[in-house]
Amino acid sequence: MEPVRRELRVRGAVQGVGFRPWAARRARQLGLAGAARNAPGGVELAIEGPPAAVERFLAALRAAPPAGARIEAVDLRAASPRGARGFAIETSEEGRGGALPRLPLDTPLCDACLAELFDPASRRHRYAFLHCAACGPRAAVLAALPWDRERSALAAFPPCAACRAEYDDPEDRRHHAEAIACPACGPRLRALAPDGAECEGDPVERAAETLGAGGIVALKGYGGFQLACDATREPVVRALRARKGRPAKPFAVLLADLEAARRAVRLAPEDEALLAGPMRAVLLAPRRRAGCAELDLAPGIAPGVADLGVLLPCTPLHFLLLFGPGQAPGRAAPRFPALVLTSGNASGEPTLHGRAEACAALRGLADLVLDHDREVLRPNDDPVLRSAPTGPIPIRLSRGSAPLVLPLPGGLRARAPLAALGGELKCAPALAAGSEILVAEHVGDLGSAAAADAARERLADLARLAGVVPGALAHDLHPDGVAAALARELSAHPVAVQHHHAHAAACLLEHGRSGPALALALDGLGYGSDGTLWGGELLRVELAGFERLAHLEPVPLPGGDAAAREPWRMAAVWLARAFPDGAPSLPWHGRRDPARLSAVLALAARGSACPITSSCGRLFDAIASLLDLADEVSHEAEAALALESAAEAAEEGWGALVLPEPGLAAPPLGARGPAPIPVVSLVREIALARARGADAGRLAAAFHEGLAARLAGAATAFARRLELSSVVLTGGCFQNRLLLEAVRARLAASGLEALVHRRLPPGDGGLAAGQAAVAVARASLAGRCEGR
């Protein structure tokens, strides 16, 4: 039978995952000739040979591509046979491909490399930089696309003859492995004393000795520096908290394997696949008290919260620290049952990655620095997700989960490339071009100069990799915010997008919707289009616009930002609203300083002295304070986490304590202004029950259910009025799995579809993606109007 030729362009995340070597091996197995090369937007393939063998190759491509590949589309065309012989991996094609780039993502050490790491007969035995075509750093070391060694930080390490032979051997698993290295030619570790002097001996063993002696070690991972200490020793954990200035925010814990994770936290099958999968995220999951006791974790790891953040080893260095010489995973117990693993930077700051800056920042913080000479070109941190009954909730996009490309829904296309900055917190910039949006890794909080610089660099990096020059720059609506100021500095065409509209648009985007839909957008604070501070909103949304239908009852925000740091202030305001004639006698810490309490209430009474807010996050703070779970906090959402943890630990039977009210009825047609969603009665009932001696945990659970009833009731009433069937659940408060599941269950009972976040964070880490989608939709609408 005459040979045939098929030429393919495979689009998606197919670079840096061993796709070309996979194609070469499969073609040779089937007796096919052809070629493969990296190209803008994907991989180009040519396959030539007997028709049946070509069809088997195409079937394998569809059914079993290499692990880690995410194929979005395959463009296939028939061509005339050229008499090709053999299969070649050709030089990559540079240039632009008309689509936003799919960056190869950093991937964890594969099983084959792990076995080699602990094999005394291997020339890479205990070498911290061994990788193959299927694993290793990608985005973190990438300088330009397509993905090739010469366009990465590994260009500084020319392969030795032995590595080159493996790279050129079609039968070797390191065939065209761009991150190939060995002790003779690759990067090397250095153990540095606090003064920067290099220590003698094996760097890994020096680090292990420091950890074993109760010290703190900074280690350089794929994307930057992390801090590690023994997670089983409370004095060591307290020392890390003191040095890092992190009094209460939970730490993540590195565990040796999935079995240890099962003992520590409750895991659904989807959680296990995520923990052990290519993302290797930090998973926040409900802890098993008995299992944690078995691991002997220090109480100070995650004080006052029900969840524990766990992750499994990702890099060779993680395994080498956990398992000493003569040990191996699966054949020996780890020398450290658990290590705290947290970012080396201050909270909200960008990831530390350069040697000079890290040595300066880590002085006085780390007792030893484990550095290496492979440069980090695109810093990143660990991604974070939260376990929930119906699927993990993304909290932070980073290594292994971003950069992320999402298609614009409904045939939308950007008329010109544009960028988006996000909000003040958890900045993760985005770029829109053509029919897609590219979302970058988490950068940090824009309040610091370092994070603002990092955001500038990341925006420029996205534009450079995409080969475009953005015109407009979308940002948060707040006119006096850092994001707006930075947008005005960076672009002649800043585009302001309301905070909660952007939250809702991000969720619509990841579901491929353009609206209309309803949206419950619940968070701490966001500048509203009426000049007040929103945070408990029911909106009718489309990508191009929104209408505010209802909101939580607004109250004063006494002291502005101080109210977020001192939840007792919000408790005082809500008590005054619930009991205008005087609150009942409560066992509440907020009463301990009558003068301070009176001053706050007097401030709130003067309307001009306090901003007004409908914030759901500040309502959570108020209830947490009323139940004596948090009066002052040191990190964002600390009070809300304490409230949720108390609710999850409560005994069943709490429902009779507070009877949820029916939801809000939609106002009559023609009514002016958004309707208030009444919650003051819920505050009143909880306060009265607390005064009668009801358990704080049971009241915390009752609050979640009562609030969910009011929110779902309001959404249901408006959905019926407006004939809408979908409700977006977005904003940082929907990182709370109790609230999320309670609202979703009630919406489902009313026949409504709940759209929840699965790829973008519901919090501010998803804002830039939503802003970009809104800006594109607005521009498209304006273009259609101009064309009439």
The major sheet is characterized as: 10 strands, mixed
Q: Quickly give the structural class.
A: alpha/beta
Distance between the termini: 58 Å
Low-confidence stretches: 652-656
For the record, the count of structural domains works out to 5
In terms of DSSP E residues, the strand content is: 15-25%
**Counted beta strands:** 29
Query: CATH fold name of the largest domain, please?
Result: Nucleotidyltransferase, domain 5
Which architecture name of the largest domain does CATH use?
2-Layer Sandwich
Shape: globular
Helicity, in percent?
25-40%
CATH class of the largest domain: Alpha Beta
CATH homology superfamily of the largest domain? ATPase, nucleotide binding domain
What is the number of helices?
23
* Overall mean pLDDT: 90
Query: Over the alpha carbons, how many angstroms does the gyration radius reach?
Result: 28 Å
Strand and helix map with partners:
Blueprint: E1 4-13, H1 19-29, E2 33-39, E3 42-49, H2 51-63, E4 70-79, E5 87-89, H3 111-117, H4 161-168, E6 189-192, H5 203-212, E7 217-220, E8 225-230, H6 234-244, E9 252-255, H7 258-264, H8 269-276, E10 282-286, H9 289-295, E11 307-311, H10 316-322, E12 338-343, H11 355-362, E13 368-372, E14 384-386, E15 393-396, E16 404-407, E17 418-420, E18 430-433, E19 436-439, H12 449-466, E20 472-476, H13 482-490, E21 493-497, H14 499-510, E22 517-527, E23 533-542, E24 545-552, E25 555-556, H15 562-565, H16 567-578, H17 594-605, E26 612-613, H18 616-626, H19 638-649, E27 675-677, H20 680-691, H21 696-722, E28 726-730, H22 737-749, E29 753-755, H23 767-786
Parallel strand pairs: 2-5, 7-13, 9-11, 10-14, 17-20, 20-21, 22-28, 24-27, 28-29
Antiparallel strand pairs: 1-3, 1-4, 2-3, 6-13, 7-8, 8-12, 9-12, 10-11, 14-15, 16-19, 17-18, 18-19, 22-23, 23-24, 25-26
Helix pairs in contact: 5-10, 7-9, 14-23, 16-17, 16-18, 16-20, 18-19, 19-21, 20-21, 21-22
